[in-house]
Give the backbone structure.
Amino acid sequence: MNMKKLPTLIGIAMVLGVLVGTLAHNMAPSPEAAKTIAGYFSIFTDVFLRLIKMIIGPLVFATLVAGIAGMGDGKTVGRVGLKAMAWFMAASIASLFLGLIMANVLTPGMGMNLPLPDAHAATDLKTGSLNLKDFITHLVPKSFFEAMATNEILQIVIFSLFTGFALGTIKDGVGKPVLAVVEGLAELMMRVTNYVMLFAPVGVFAAIASVITKQGLSVLTVYAKLVGSLYLSLALLWVILIAGGYFFLRGDVFRLIKTMRAPLMIGFATASSESAYPKVIEQLTRFGVKERISGFVLPLGYSFNLDGSIMYTSFAALFVAQVYGIELSLTQQITMLLVLLVTSKGIAGVPRASLVVVAAVLPMFGLPEAGILLILGIDHIMDMARTVTNVLGNAIATTVVAKSEGAIGPAAAEEVEPVEAVDLPVQTPLGARA
């Protein structure tokens, strides 16, 4: 299949998903039957997401190790990492504060005045381990194979950093064949990625159809104020991110957005940042970003730079406070933002991971954890928007860092298939990888 047609096919799949889901919802004799039918649709979504998870660990490991080893020295790695983290922190702070401002201005939960729920109301979300101590210790894997098996991206990144640094110091000796193997693995995983992406339209169709079948078109209108407020806030965040990208990239930032159409649509439809990751790497390469930069910065971004998810955490927490009529002082709100800034790092790029962070933070400020139940029903609609924002934010961040390092080459020709645009040379002097 011509991969240039993928965005069109995904768009068609989304429309068909709405139509088929609506038909199935209306024909289902009962809510239980609708849920059963939705379960059959979700089989295809689960298969697609499993295919993505199948390649995500080896892809991150290979691209990150090859990228670090190809940089030449530790100073270069440190400089690139510092630039990336500076951008990530600036974007995270901007996202959190924008969420706070918009939630206070739009007040999506004001007026509901719900009674406080039972203190023992459960949310079925595991939140006990989300604290600073456990977060820091969780960074270091007990076993590389365990990290790969569970797709713990942060742990894979840590192991890959050590491996890349070590390989970079010995690549001119016995490390040369090892580097060749790693680069070969990176190329192999890129090829596998293209094959997996052939199933993207099917996964997207099934994801949309499943949600609509289960909840009907009403899912698009229930809590319209909350959804509309969040989408407006994320649109403003897009403006900020694009403006920041324009400052460094000028008009190329708009060409970048056009290049990223397919991964943006995949992320939006599946509500999973992980599902878009392989395509983001591929499209950044087509844009001209050297893989030694994208292979290093993008995995970090997927752990530390989920702009849409980070903004949503502050927005959702204040929504819960408004719903129950609990007033938080400005000091409390700013303190909450600082807590969220820490706990949101390492959010898994999978659906509803942000809810876990929100549910963990709510009790710290006297807010009922069960308030999360109010937005579970429409969380998928909001998750789609914040996921596509995550994808955009990481694409811009990676490209800006690459621009600052002079690591953007000529874009791949439009008529060239993406699968042919990711060839990696075996011997890679600094800056030579395409």
DSSP finds 18 helices and no strands in the chain.
